[in-house]
Design a protein that fits this description.
Length: 337
């Protein structure tokens, strides 16, 4: 492995002003700060320190507390709006002053521990479109939907702020309820599709279109600040993220848990223990990867069941259909229709 592993309780994420935005929104609705910080082992003075580090576990606790204060999809949207107009976070300013969307996405990936930890973006090119698929770096539980919706709202807002229009984009979202669907239609004029993973698709041509606030000098200044802040964070990546990305590359082989342990230089018991610490299992990760790959191939590439069975390492179509039903609750034919 090329990078050290990030554990669930490692203090390797910057709290920064971006988490404070979420807390301030709840405070303005009348919720006490000690309630919002409960269980996080953070104090009011911590929020004023630009370099205070927290663990993924602490970040999820903050999200959980704020969700209890402001339930529903509004909190993710309002927090994203705060980020778009933020003048104190070096990374948010860097993204705003990027030359284009391509540079902004590269900057986000490099410094995401300073903005929205716990998710990463997988890129897929499909028929002239770039699809940004949000994937969790850890098992995020009830907070996963909020964190991924927050990222989607921010990306949509950044495109609208800098390129003026979101009508050429399309969005897929999990667990779509009436309120969430209405919010996307009302704020972004987009009707999201229901999917197994949250994703945003945009024409490849938008990647190089110049940002309205592009400023190479200001971008460089903020990058220097980001580099300085990043020095205080261990360069780590979660094991589930590394394992999931590897599983995407070996779909056809469908490696067993024992083969995965050998690949990563771990004993079988060590592999199980590491994944249990991150609240997941090898079977869960493998099922998620196959389900996501199957949905993409079904809806975007038009693959037949026979082709998909071969691609995902199944001996025949019947076994693939049965597995797909277990993953999604639907047969492939029902998803197509």
């Amino acid at each position: 492995m090329t990078k050290a592993l990030l554990a669930f309780d490692d203090k390797a994420l910057l709290l920064g002003a971006t988490a404070l935005d979420m807390i301030l929104l709840c405070q303005r609705r009348g919720f006490a700060l000690d309630t919002l910080l409960k269980g996080s082992k953070l104090f009011e003075e911590d929020l004023r320190k630009a370099t205070i580090k927290i663990s993924p576990q602490q970040y999820l606790q903050l999200v959980s507390n704020c969700q209890k204060a402001l339930p529903g999809p509004e909190l993710a949207y309002l927090t994203a709006q705060s980020w778009l107009h933020h003048n104190h976070s070096p990374l948010l300013l860097m993204l705003r002053h990027s030359a284009n969307l391509q540079q902004a996405l590269l900057s986000f990936y490099r410094y995401r521990s300073q903005l929205l930890p716990l998710v990463y973006i997988r890129l897929q090119r499909v028929q002239g479109q770039l699809r940004l698929v949000l994937r969790p770096s850890f098992a995020l539980g009830k907070q996963q939907a909020f964190i991924e919706q927050l990222m989607l709202h921010y990306l949509l807002g950044l495109v609208k702020q800098q390129l003026g229009d979101t009508s050429r984009l399309s969005i897929s979202a999990t667990s779509l309820d009436h309120e969430t669907s209405w919010l996307y239609q009302h704020q972004w004029q987009l009707t999201p599709d229901t999917a197994l993973q949250n994703s945003l698709s945009l024409p490849l041509a938008l990647l190089k279109q110049s940002f309205a606030d592009a400023n190479p000098k200001l971008w460089q200044q903020q990058q220097n600040w980001c580099l300085y802040l990043q020095q205080s964070i261990p360069e780590k990546i979660s094991f589930t993220e590394q394992l999931e990305q590897w599983l995407f590359t070996v779909l056809r082989q469908s490696p067993s848990q024992e083969e995965a342990a050998r690949h990563w230089g771990l004993s079988l018991s060590s592999l199980k223990r590491v994944l249990a610490q991150q609240h997941t299992s090898y079977q869960q990760l493998q099922d998620q990867v196959k389900a996501c790959a199957a949905q993409q191939a079904l809806l975007l590439q038009g693959m037949s069941n026979k082709e998909l069975a071969h691609r995902l390492g199944y001996s025949d179509e019947h076994n693939f259909r049965r597995a797909f039903k277990r993953w999604t609750g639907l047969l492939p034919s029902q998803l197509r229709s």
